[in-house]
Amino acid sequence: MGGEVPFPSGDLMKGKRGLIMGVANKRSIAWFIAQQLHAQGAELAFTYVNEAMERRVRPLAESLGAKIIIECDVTSDASMDATFATVKDKWGEIDFLVHAIAFTDKSALEGSFVENTTRQIFKDTMDVSAFSFVDAANRAAKMMKSGGSMITLTYLGSERTIPNYNVMGVAKAALEASTRYIARDLGPRGIRVNSISAGPIKTLAAAGISSGAHMFSFNRAASPLRDDTDPKGVAGAALYLLSDLGLSCTGETHHVDGGFHIVGMPDASALKE
Ligand SMILES: NC(=O)c1ccc[n+]([C@@H]2O[C@H](COP(=O)([O-])OP(=O)(O)OC[C@H]3O[C@@H](n4cnc5c(N)ncnc54)[C@H](O)[C@@H]3O)[C@@H](O)[C@H]2O)c1
User: In this predicted model, what pLDDT tens digit does every residue of 212-258 receive, in sequence order?
Assistant: First the structure.
């Protein structure tokens, strides 16, 4: 999936610099986005969550010529301060931000939402998966002196109930609402803010969801395109939203999911999946 076809190259991001938060490995959605932006001339800085991840992320980032590769745990103010101070110090200004970060306790991604969502899990999930975008957007905007564009990654579990997605769906609803409020605040400064709602893609984060296999097969069977969501499609949408192609588009939740979100009642064949 997303394998052989090269990322379309060109100059759409030439002269633009931005921060990519959320690469864990080669399967990460943020990594597909980074490759697409690089193929269009963007200069990229990367964050990784901790030392263990650095081993995977640093070689990937370096393969795209990145010079700024920083450890950043979004739950720590000190870590966020240091990250944005480093980017400001090296670049002064940025043009875009990619936020592709989410986390919850595995115990909350199975069974009953109402029984398995403790106060601590609710708070922690919201902190990492929704507040971190508000925080990163606020910090990034201060470095966007001549306008800019930001995106985050969300999932349909914010709008509809999806088995086992549970508290993460609630956090994604908060993330999408935050996208609209941030877009409203930053719009007068020429900064656009959008979310991409991707269909299921095989990544580390997706592996945590109990009954993930059903999620993939049902999405394939019920979506109009009858296929998995290709991370290259997500990367293409990111390019549109982060480049000047996306002029005048802000506060949007753009679905890249094979059309799954438009289906009210799937064909009978999908129920055999
Ligand atoms: N994979 C899917 O099916 C899918 C579908 C729709 C939306 N998304 C969203 O896309 C985004 C990226 O996820 P992915 O699927 O590429 O998986 P991934 O596991 O590759 O990426 C998740 C990233 O979040 C980072 N992260 C977690 N806690 C963090 C913290 N405290 N500080 C900093 N970083 C932290 C991880 O290090 C990792 O890089 C997430 O928001 C996810 O919810 C994924």
Answer: 888 999 999 999 999 999 999 999 999 999 999 999 999 999 999 99
10 belongs to a structural domain: no
Whether residue 9 lies inside any domain: the answer is no
What CATH number did the domain enclosing 118 receive?
A: 3.40.50.720
Beta-carbon contacts of residue 251 (< 8 Å; ≥ 6 apart): 179, 180, 183, 184, 187, 193, 194
Q: Which member of 48, 155, 181, 240 is catalytic?
A: 155
Q: Containing domain of residue 97, as a range?
A: 17-272
Of 48, 165, 181, 240, which residue is the catalytic one?
Answer: 165
The model's confidence at residue 209, banded by pLDDT at 50, 70 and 90, is: confident
**Residue whose CA lies nearest to ligand 1 atom number 3:** 200
- Tell me which residue of 156, 150, 158, 206 sits closest to 1, measured CA to CA: 206
18 C-alpha to ligand 1 centroid (Å):
18
For the chain, what is the domain count? 1
Q: What is the pTM of this model?
A: 0.97
- Rounded CA-CA distance 104/7 in Å is 32
Range from 2-11, 151-160, 196-205 carrying the lowest mean pLDDT: 2-11
H-type alpha helices, the chain: 29-39, 51-63, 77-91, 113-116, 119-126, 132-141, 166-186, 204-207, 212-222, 231-242
